[in-house]
Amino acid sequence: MNLIDAFESGAIAIPWAVSIDGKYFPSSTGRDAPMHCITDCNDKYCQNPGGTLLGHQCTVGFTYYHGKVGEAIIILFGTLGSKGWESVDTGIRQKNKDDLKGRSVSARDFSSWLEKLKSLNKLFVDYKNNILSEALHPLHETPKIAEEIRNLADSLVNLKPGKTFDERFSAALPAERGIYKGAQLLVDSFDMLSIFFNPESAKLGEKRIAEPYKLIHKLVLLLSNSNNGLTRRRPKIYGESYKKYLALESFRIIPLALLNNAIKYSMTEEVIIDVRDVDNGTLFSLVSTGPYISEEECGRIFERGFRGKYAQSIDRDGMGIGLYVAREAAIANRTTIKVVSEDLGYSLKSIPMARNTFSFVVRDVV
Fold first, then answer.
1. Residue 333: which domain range?
2. Which of 61, 131, 247, 346 has its CB 3.0 to 4.6 Å from that of 210, i.e. a possible disulfide?
3. How many domains does the chain have?
């Protein structure tokens, strides 16, 4: 359960009409938003980014407040702030006189209500984490077992002839390659779950020398035969990089999660990975053709548990884990993942297509 679920249930009193992540909720106490805001306002100035807890005035003089609870954006609009009635346009004031009763809300009033919602939201999050932890508790030894299997598979591959891992991997039997892939991806999955349940764990572990290009190349080797049930994806690497970095163990999770996401949601066969050295680091860009990501979704796509509008129709089993974990690993490694979705002007299976690019720059973690 989240705040929207709680509000929709009717079990939570809403003192003033608000919007949560763009969804409108009327007041449960009769103090609804002015009719001007609901029916006559065209610019929806209060919904634009940049609002604060202190409050701002819209174009007709109403005061609106922005607050955040967890990842949810809550907007209280159509109120009489500290300037009261006199701040509102005369004609609109007269027309909405009855609607404005009980709409005198100060920044302190709004902040106080938000603090209560934050406490409630924390209960939701803690409860969800406890349920998941209890469900996974019987598997607490499984990551160690997966690690042992991966090490054994690694030994099998290293016994094959060849000077490089690529050569030895290619010389392995198909069954041996399959065991290695499965074991490595299983270990990576447990690492991602660890960060999902405890984001702070992304900052733990010793810093090690990482060669990003080799890491990407190995990931592509492991994931190149992945099949999501629609079409076989073929990740291709462009560019080159010879730089080495001092990075945390969680660094590997960033390209792994992004590549997994691109493969999963690409609606065409090709997934492009561009790796290039820049002045202050190495730039990674993962490009695929998939569902259009709106501006609002771009701002929320890395939230825990969030899934885009068209994600469900492509992958029903997704849980909104991958990109959240990638963001936490990126924060730990002092970088930022950027996303750009360029509308291609056509649809596939009733889904608007876009050229989606996820990128980040790796630098030394010091």
1. 141-362
2. 247
3. 2
